[in-house]
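Predict the 3D structure for this chain.
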Amino acid sequence: MRTFRLVVLPILSMLLLWSCNEKEKCTFIPDTKAISIDLQLEQLEDSLPAVTTKKQLVDFFSRHATLRDFVFARESYPNDSVFINELYARFSNPHIDTLLLETKKVFGDLSELKAEFSQAFTNLKYYYPDFQPPKIQTIITGLETDLFVTDTLIVVGLDYYLGKGARYRPNMYEYMLRRYDKSFIVPSVMLLYGIDPRLNETDLQDRTVLAEMITYGKAYYFAKHMLPCVPDSVFIGYSAEEIAGARANQDIIWKKLVEDEVFYSTSAKIRQKYIAERPKTFDVADQAPGRIGTWVGWQIVNAYAKRKPDATLPELMRMSNAKQIFNESRYRPVEP
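Done. Predicted structure below.
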């Protein structure tokens, strides 16, 4: 079994190197001085823990029907009575106060979150002048929902993003939990924008793995332009070691994709191996991270953009021909 050629450095040296690399990884930073946006952020995290009667809970959901129907999934309950009873039991539980206090400790006054949303939305408006920022609501859901995103509203379940060491965390595998830290919130929202078919045009008749790789690659490329100095590892949810290993071993990954005839395959098994959620892609190398096909799709899109410097971000996002992007990128890593 192949292994990635990772170089182990002393901790201090690694931190210094990583810090320098972060600066190098900034993509194009647009001049947005002339752009202003109206960022509306409504903090609701205190609301549900403060409920003392079922009537108050009913009143809250009457005022916030979107939260009721989509964030708390009213339709998954047999009737309104069961819904209210279960939610009242959840938010009158003494542990919810601990969750609220921990959320406030992690997020403070939300100034960092506001600033990052503001940056992302300002950059989005630079590339798409007609863009109007949606309203943002922050809330505690009792670990029910992480994000809800539409054109007009973004809801952030802050308690999902308390990070490593939190007393209460979502029930999922550790490699997935890495993405539930506060630094992932705005990048995750930008990825949802980037994968939206209204921005990221695709050929629905193309069922190849390559088409899916390029679709994800365009989404990562888009999100990186909204937050140009956020590390690549944050967008894709890899550890620093995994992203360094993927970069250092692009030739190994490429060779395996070619050997397995991945690009033009329509096999569900191939898609599961290279695109779907999993901790590692052991068929490529012992330490190759999961979803390695999406990472390669990102590198292909990056290579295409470098070869087509006159293409704007919206123009690239409108390109639906994955094969054309692949061929014109000339992405062919070779062993150094």
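The chain has 16 helices and four strands.
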